[in-house]
Amino acid sequence: MHPTGRIGIMAAMPEELQALLDVMPDETMVRRAGREFWVGHLHGRDVVAVLSRIGKVAAATTSTVLLTEFGVDQLLFTGVAGGLGDGVRVGDVVVADALMQHDMDASPLFPRFELPGLGLDALSPPGALTQQVRETVERVLSEVHLEALGLGQARVHQGLIISGDQFIHCAQACAGLRQALPQALAVEMEGAAVAQVCHDFQVPYAVVRTISDRADDDAHIDFPRFVSTVACHYSVAIIEALLRQMRP
Ligand code: SAH
Asked: How many structural domains is the chain composed of?
């Protein structure tokens, strides 16, 4: 254990990681498993920032290294996701209170979506941390206005985020997921893998996703523009606000 607790920050996009490094005063890079881990401080907290890499296996490897080699005591994940739930719009933020792998299917040996060996399909981050993250995101978003981008006031949602090794970008795939998992608010490619690693190591974690697209036929068009203009500013503002508040 580090005396004040060390926080791992996983960013999904290079732009998001860069925005974070820009506000870290003293980071040094340590290379492990072909990844660059940035060890330093942010708002007086001991942090390690890293790019998660895309997909469940990549994100699980990155999380495992953060936990075992860098000894982080909690893990925060920020990134973008496709909106699935009704009323979950581009520019909104979803805070996960449960995560599932939508492409996990070992039926008929196990029920569809169940994680073999765990006897669970959804994993939930600790309620207190989720609540703290949600309140912080609400505060940050109340100060952000996206009218210039044609987006309305961003809203915060809390609920199920689903992950799988597919970029969902057509109306049909999107409808299939909505039908199979009607409670899902957002779809992405890493969160549930990070959740499973943290579950196994019993380390608190939070997953926050800004909605970059609606996972439909326009997803590939919306996506790059959104990441550079909005998502990376959000995630650094959210992380900074959280760390300021999480004083040891
Ligand atoms: N074109 C991008 C591809 C990124 S893949 C690139 O230039 O790298 C999409 C990333 O954003 C993943 O990390 C995933 O978690 C998230 N994501 C955003 N929208 C998504 C969607 N509709 N379906 C799945 N993942 C999505």
From this structure: 1
Q: Report the atom number in ligand 1 closest to the C-alpha of 189.
A: 15
| 54 CA closest ligand 1 atom index | 13
The first and second tokens of residue 95, run together, are 């805070």
What is the rounded distance in angstroms from the CA atom of residue 247 to the CA atom of residue 242?
9
Measured from the CB, is residue 190 less than 6 Å from ligand 1? yes
User: Tell me, what CATH number does 109's domain have?
Assistant: 3.40.50.1580
pLDDT, one tens digit per residue, over 207-235 is: 999 998 887 877 776 677 777 777 878 88
- Tokens representing 129 are 């941390």
Is 48's pLDDT higher than 60? Answer: yes
* Closest of 20, 48, 235 to residue 137, by C-alpha: 235
How many beta carbons lie within 10 A of that of residue 108, not counting itself? Answer: 7
pTM of the model: 0.93
